[in-house]
Design brief:
With about 400 residues, this protein is an alpha/beta fold. It has 2 domains: about 30-140 and about 295-388, 3-Layer(aba) Sandwich (Isopropylmalate Dehydrogenase), CATH 3.40.718; about 140-290, Isopropylmalate Dehydrogenase (3-Layer(aba) Sandwich), CATH 3.40.718. The chain contains 14 helices and 12 strands. The chain has helices spanning about 1-30, 50-65, 70, 85-90, 100-105, 130-135, 190-205, 225-235, 250-255, 270-285, 310-315, 325-335, 340-355, 370-385; strands spanning about 40-45, 75-80, 110, 140-150, 155-160, 175, 180, 210-215, 240-245, 265-270, 290-295, 300-305. The strands form 2 sheets. It has a 10-stranded mixed sheet with strand order 2-1-3-12-11-4-5-10-8-9, with helices on both faces. It has a two-stranded antiparallel sheet with strand order 6-7. Strand 8 (about 210-215), helix 8 and strand 9 (about 240-245) form a beta-alpha-beta unit. Helix 2 crosses helix 12 and helix 7 (about 190-205) packs parallel to helix 8. The structure holds 3-isopropylmalic acid and magnesium ion. 3-isopropylmalic acid (IPM) binds near residues 117 and 275.
Length: about 400
């Protein structure tokens, strides 16, 4: 047993050293890339697995239409990245194959379809999730997830920390002995301050007057305690914004409390809580199939659906009925992020018409509704009418 303890301590040491090196990199990485200063902005399109290519196609079509003039003027180019499939990842036993990572790094922003995350018992090697790896490799530290249900007064924006918490070394936990397994959760000062600042800046620039910090700091005292304290400290710099803090358990309950939930506006929270609660939140809006998300870093940004690759839909031959709305919402966020607010507003308006107001077609995920492509046509036609 002494030997096993020693091996576990050595693994812990490696984790600590790796995280300290990451802290150093964060300290050097100060400024956001200014897209306006680029001659050509490169947008990567990466279909992913399962229903990914089908839904990404519809989003790409609308994006190309909205940026047509900029592409013609050479200001924007598209780069298709096909290799991020589970088959390719399994073949090289890597979350992201090296050549695919190099291609991703040639882009400034990326529109990415869902990728399959292997788990124990799958036919695939149990490699790290491509999503998680991409967020870390490109240092996409903020996962921004908006959820809106206007008729119920719900207008939430989640700022999920995206590179730390339980995810930082989620695939490097230690089986110390047959009886004991240990995972790690990580909070850093730089990592927390940058997500908190982004959340408060967003609140300030979008006339929101409340930021809610969500943790479980009463139990996870060290890492969540640090996250809470640092977010509160950043909050003090924004006297016009009210800061409150909640524990994650009661927050999940309050989101279904109709009287209370409309008070929430902006949330800032560690990675795992953000993962869980944004699925719950999206459900009020029509499910995860309707929710997009932005993964924002200082050099790169990646936009995606908040859901997975739905292998069950593919196995049952239903992929052509997948809902492209999550990827289309992600496209709205991408356009806004690169400063094309007019085009972002246009697509958002078209989606609101197709999904809520006019609803000429419905997506059910099966042959009782329209196909992904038909819905894409509907959104395209609506965009075209709005442009005229
Ligand atoms: C998400 C997803 C991912 C996550 C999975 C696919 C690894 O659930 O983007 O919320 O856990 O972050
Ligand atoms: Mg999730």
């Amino acid at each position: 047993m002494e030997q096993q303890v020693k091996e576990a301590v050595a693994k812990f040491e490696a984790v600590v050293r790796e995280q300290l090196a990451r802290v150093d990199r964060m300290k050097q990485d100060k400024d956001f890339l200014d897209y306006d200063k680029l001659d050509t902005l490169i947008i990567g399109i990466c279909g992913g697995d399962g229903i990914g290519p089908v839904i990404t196609n519809e989003a790409e079509r609308v994006l190309r239409f909205l940026l047509k003039e900029e592409v013609e003027a050479g200001k924007v180019t598209f780069k298709k990245i096909d290799g991020l499939t589970i088959e390719n990842r399994a073949a090289v036993n890597k979350a992201i194959p090296d050549d695919v990572l190099a291609e991703l790094k040639e882009c400034h922003v990326i529109l990415k379809g869902p990728t399959t995350t292997p788990r124990a018992g799958d036919p695939w090697p149990n490699i790290e999730s491509a999503n998680v790896a991409m967020r870390k490799e490109l240092d996409l530290f903020a996962n921004v997830r908006p959820v809106k249900v206007p008729e119920e007064g719900i207008d939430w924006t989640f700022f999920r920390e995206n590179t730390e918490g339980g995810y930082a070394v989620g695939s490097k936990g230690v089986h110390v002995t047959d009886d004991l397994a240990v995972d790690f959760t990580v909070t850093t000062t730089d990592g927390t301050e940058r997500i908190a600042r982004l959340a408060y800046e967003y609140a300030k620039n979008n006339k929101k007057n409340r930021v809610s910090i969500i943790t479980k700091a009463n139990v996870i005292k060290t890492t969540d305690g640090k996250f809470l304290k640092l977010c509160q400290k950043i909050g003090e710099e924004y006297p016009d914004i009210t800061t409150d803090d909640w524990y994650i358990d009661i927050t999940t309950a309050k989101l279904i409390d109709k009287k209370r939930r409309t008070d929430f506006q902006v949330f800032v929270l560690p990675n795992l809580y953000g993962d869980i609660i944004t699925d719950e939140a999206a459900e009020f809006q029509g499910g995860v199939g309707t929710a997009g998300s932005g993964n924002i870093g200082k050099r790169y940004a990646m936009f995606e659906a908040i859901h997975g690759s739905a292998p069950r839909m593919v196995a049952e031959g239903r992929d052509k009925y997948a809902d492209p709305c999550s990827m289309l919402r992600a496209t709205v966020m991408l356009l806004s992020h690169i400063g094309r607010q007019k085009e972002a507003d246009l697509l958002e308006q078209a989606l609101d018409i197709c999904m809520f107001k006019e609803k000429k077609l419905t997506i059910t995920g099966r042959d009782t509704g329209c196909t992904c492509n038909e819905f894409g046509d509907y959104v395209m036609a609506t965009v075209e009418t709005l442009v005229q």
